[in-house]
Structure formats: C-alpha cells, structure tokens
C-alpha cells in the first residue's frame, strides 16, 4: 500500500488494485473486513514473487523468475525491466547504480541505506557513494527504516533491535579520514543500540519514531521509547500494509486478500515522537488534540521516559496521579486525591511519605484516616507524646485493636489497664502470668477467673491451678514481690522526660527487690497490705462524711412534707 491508500497485489499473474479512499465516507469498525472495490490492472509478464511501491507511490516493481519489471502504478505500463534475484527501493529512487560488495550478497534491504546480508553478517552501504558505513555481525530477517532515516529496526528469528543512526559521527569520521575512526568494519559510532526486544516481528512499519509491527502470536503492537503498546489481538495471521495519518487508521491484510483496519491516533504517535526527540514545544502543541480517554496511556509513556511531573499533569486516572504524586513528593496533590477516594491504602502510603518528609502533623491525620493504629503508636512513642499515646490506647481498645491498646498502656506504665485488656479478651493464662510478673496483688483474682473459665471445659485442670493465698508455699518470694509492686507503683505514675534517657538505668541493670529492701530498711518505704489500705481508704471516706454539716445532709428534704405529717402525741400517750 502506498501513502495515499492504494493497495496493489498479485493474484497468480493478475495484478489487482483497491483504493481505501473509496470507502472514506463509510463508518469503519476495528477488525471488520473493508468492503473494497477491486480493480483488475492486467496480467504480469512474469510470475510475481514480490511486489512493492516505490517511496512516492508512482511506480510498482514486480520481481520473480529471476527478472524484475517496473510498472507505472496507475495504468501498469512497463517502464523498465531486467534480470534480478531481489529488488529494493532506496529513499530516492531516481538514480540507479551498480557495485560489487566485498562479501557477496545473500539478501538486500532498502531504505535510508543499502543493506546487504552475507555470510559475514549485515553491511550497510551509502546509496550515493556505495562506501561501507558499518558492518554488524547479525543475521537479519528484515530491516525497517524510519521516515527521517534516524532509526532502524533490525529483526531476527527471535528478537528485534532498534538502532539510532548518527549522521554527524559518520560525517566527522569521513572528514578526518583516520584509520581509528574508519576500520574494516566501517564507522564504529555510526549506530547506537536503543533497545533489544525478545519478540519475533512478522511485518512492520514506522510512523514517526513509533515502530508498529505484528508478531508471531498475532498481536498488533507498537514500540516507542522502550515501551510496547498492544493495539489489538488478531484472530489470524495478518500483514501490515500501511498507515493513513488522515484517517488515524492502520490497514492490514491476510492471505485471502481480506483488508481490515484498526484505529491508532496520529496525535498520540506525534506526541510520543516529539517527546522522544525532546521537542517539548511541539509536544505541548499536540497534547490538546489528544482525546481525554487516551491521556492516561500518554502519561504512562511519559513516566517511563522519566518525565513524571509532565505525566502527572497529563493523566486523568486518579490512581496513576496519586502514584506519581508520591514519587514526586507532592504531598498536597496526594492529600487531595486521598481525601476524594477515602482509601485506607492511600492514607497509609501518604503517611509514609509525610513521615519521610518530617510532616508529622499530616502523618498523624493520614494514619488516623487509615485506622492504622500500629502506625499511630509508632509515631506517638517516637515523638514522646504522652497524651497521644493515652488517647490511642482508649481508641484502640474501643475499636478492638487489643495489641495496640495493650502496648500503649504498657508504654505509659498503666499495668492495671494492661491486665484488664488481657482479662476482657479472654486471655486469662496470659493475664495470670502478667499479674505474677508485674501485679502480684492481682494474682488471686485472676486465678479465680481462670478457674471459672477453665472449669467449664476441664474441672480437674481448673482445680489444679494454685492460688498464692491458699498455697503460699508454692510461691516463694511472693510477699517480697507484693512489696516490690507497691514500692514501684509511684515510679510507674511519674513520667520521665525523653531527654533523661541517658541518666536512667536500664531495666536489666536494676534489681527492684533489692531496691525495695534497701528502702524498707532505711524507713523510706513502709509496706501496707492491700486489705489495710482498702480499710484506711474507707475510714478516710467515713471521716470526710462526719465532717459534713447537718444542713448539707438534710438538704433536699421537703420541709413542707415533714410539717404536714398528722402526728398527735397526746393520743399516742393516751393509748399507752
């Protein structure tokens, strides 16, 4: 197919033609067979094996049976003929030259340069001077040049390579004439490898800097800037014919001469081409012409090229925009998106970013919105915020986040609350061991609860649980443990500033029992049993009640009600 949409093929020796322009007014759906009118051009004098338009579409060459014939594309008039095993066109098809390559020729490839395949590999020659430009050790299957001659795709049986041609390096090497620059393999810097893709290319064309191709698994893809985009999944083997920019459509055909097309926006290809050439001025002009539904695809392309800020401005996908905002550290933009979506995962991700940027206020809000109690505990304890830890403990306990609640209470030294968390969650064995370690005064109560709970399952096991009040001999040092608990209680309630950490001895360096005994001997500590302490508290409450004036005690009694009682003392006395 030429650039104007004329498709020509050979059916046996008969040449036929169809024109895409004839159905320009009809609605075309992707993958549907096009209702093209076929025109018979006439018969060919040889049996065609290959047929191809020249670059401007004015001529058609047919090659086969060891001969070639050049026809006019419109009327199929014979313009030239001769002997040939293969025939290729250069970009400028008006000049014909002959030369003999050094290593023979097993295959020819046209385009910006003459490609010759031989036993030694692939050699590129200049069309004008027939000088060797570069020899590459590769066995190509096909070669496709871009329109401007800067990019070339070399396909093999298993993969394809994208190379960039450096015209400036070639000119410099030729002008210098140095043997270091020009070796027997040509100019080393003539080509630069851009990418290698493990995929088999069947047919392909270039549109700008985008290489469009069909592969061995019947997919229609295009490659640009290291990214492969799938245009369509084909249901049979098809061959690329060409691309009409005005229609924004790709055209393909199969062996039965069925022609189908697929939509591929030129504006998207132009934008990606401009980005690859770092021509952002052109890219900005093309961007408004790209429909909104295609912007996200363009944004992903920009991201892969490393232009994340531009990708964030282009994309309309909230998920993609949020990810880009995180990568760019845009807290405000990420916060707005998280606020709109109300996603716990987004709040957690934003909290991590806020912490990394020392925005602890924002991090706290994000963790709260994400219900991330573990994160809030980490933040609160790291900041030494007592009020935040206390509030978190209460909130976590109400929300059923018992581990966080336990750790929060434990960090504050509120061991009684820790014990209640264990009891309320039914973890009575842990509660018993916890009380034995930290709150010996509560052991009997917890053991009694444990017995009752275990008795419903195994009464014998429940009776085997020993209570320190009943079996004091089984708990050596239990009295000292109770004294130590009471001795340490004031210390637990006094919160030490974080900056005093270097001055406070570590727990493993202390012996609380010895500290209690030393304090007891010095008279600074006097142990009061819990029973006596409770009685003293009750007596204090009673004394406080005695000190209350009678007027306050009788306050609230209805005086009118007392006076209205009908009591006759004389009658009572007479009855006696």
Automatic annotation (TrEMBL):
Its main location: membrane. One of its GO terms (biological process) is intracellular protein transport. Transmembrane segments: none annotated. It is a peripheral membrane protein. Gene3D superfamilies: 1.25.40.470. Residues 271-451 form the COPA/B TPR domain. Keywords: Cytoplasm, Cytoplasmic vesicle, ER-Golgi transport, Golgi apparatus, Membrane, Protein transport, Repeat, Transport, WD repeat. It is found in: Cytoplasmic vesicle, COPI-coated vesicle membrane; Golgi apparatus membrane. GO terms for molecular function: structural molecule activity. Residues 92-254 form the COPA/B second beta-propeller domain. Residues 532-576 are annotated as: Disordered. Residues 533-544, 567-576 have a biased composition (Acidic residues). One of its GO terms (cellular component) is Golgi membrane. Pfam families: B-prop_COPA_B_2nd (PF04053), TPR_COPA_B (PF23953). Belongs to the WD repeat COPB2 family. This is COPB2.
């Amino acid at each position: 197919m030429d650039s104007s949409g004329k498709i020509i093929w050979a059916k046996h020796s008969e040449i036929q033609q169809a024109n895409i322009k004839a159905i320009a007014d009809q609605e075309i759906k992707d993958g549907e067979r096009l209702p093209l009118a076929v025109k018979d051009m006439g018969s060919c004098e040889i049996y065609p094996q290959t047929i191809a338009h020249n670059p401007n579409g004015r001529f058609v060459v047919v090659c086969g049976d060891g001969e070639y014939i050049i026809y006019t594309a419109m009327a199929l008039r014979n313009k030239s003929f001769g002997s040939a095993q293969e025939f290729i066109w250069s970009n400028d098809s008006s000049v014909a030259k002959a030369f003999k390559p050094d290593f023979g020729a097993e295959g020819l490839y046209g385009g910006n340069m003459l490609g010759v395949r031989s036993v030694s590999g692939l050699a590129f020659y200049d069309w004008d001077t027939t000088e060797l430009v570069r020899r590459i050790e590769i066995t190509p299957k096909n070669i496709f040049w871009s329109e401007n001659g800067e990019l070339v795709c070399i396909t093999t049986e298993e993969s394809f390579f994208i190379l960039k041609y450096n015209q400036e390096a070639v000119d410099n090497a030729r002008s210098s004439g140095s043997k270091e620059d020009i070796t027997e393999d040509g100019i080393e810097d003539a080509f630069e490898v851009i990418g290698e893709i493990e995929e088999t290319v069947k047919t392909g064309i270039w549109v700008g800097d985008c290489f469009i191709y069909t592969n061995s698994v019947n997919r229609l893809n295009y490659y640009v800037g290291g990214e492969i985009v799938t245009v369509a999944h084909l249901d049979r083997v098809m061959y690329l014919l060409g691309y009409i920019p005005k229609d924004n459509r790709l055209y393909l055909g199969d062996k039965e001469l069925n022609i189908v097309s697929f939509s591929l926006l030129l504006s998207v290809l132009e934008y990606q081409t401009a980005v690859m050439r770092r021509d952002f001025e052109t890219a900005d002009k093309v961007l408004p012409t790209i429909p909104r539904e295609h912007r996200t695809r363009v944004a992903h392309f920009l991201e892969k090229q490393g232009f994340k800020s531009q990708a964030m401005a282009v994309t309309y996908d909230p998920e993609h925009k949020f990810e880009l905002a995180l990568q760019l550290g845009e807290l405000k933009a990420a916060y707005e998106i998280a606020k709109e979506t109300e996603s716990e995962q987004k709040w957690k991700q934003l909290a991590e970013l806020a912490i990394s940027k020392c925005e602890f206020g924002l991090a706290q809000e994000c963790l709260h919105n994400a219900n991330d109690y573990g994160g809030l505990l980490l933040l609160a304890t790291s900041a030494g915020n007592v009020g935040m830890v206390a509030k978190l403990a209460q909130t976590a306990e109400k929300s059923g986040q018992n581990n966080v609640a336990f750790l929060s209470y434990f960090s504050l030294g509120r061991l009684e609350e820790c014990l209640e968390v264990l009891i309320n969650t039914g973890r009575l064995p842990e509660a018993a061991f916890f009380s034995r370690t930290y709150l010996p005064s509560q052991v009997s109560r917890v053991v009694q609860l444990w017995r009752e709970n275990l008795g419903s399952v195994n009464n014998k096991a429940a009776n085997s649980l020993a209570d320190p009040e009943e079996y004091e001999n089984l708990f050596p040092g239990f009295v000292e443990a109770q004294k130590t608990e009471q001795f340490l209680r004031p210390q637990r309630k006094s919160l030490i500033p974080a900056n005093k950490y270097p001055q406070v001895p570590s727990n493993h360096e202390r012996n609380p029992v010895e500290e209690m005994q030393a304090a007891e001997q010095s008279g600074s500590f006097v142990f009061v049993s819990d029973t006596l302490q409770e009685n003293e508290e009750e007596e204090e409450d009673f004394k406080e009640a005695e000190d209350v004036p009678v007027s306050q005690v009788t306050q609230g009694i209805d005086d009118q009600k007392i006076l209205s009682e009908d009591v006759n003392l004389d009658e009572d006395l007479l009855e006696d």
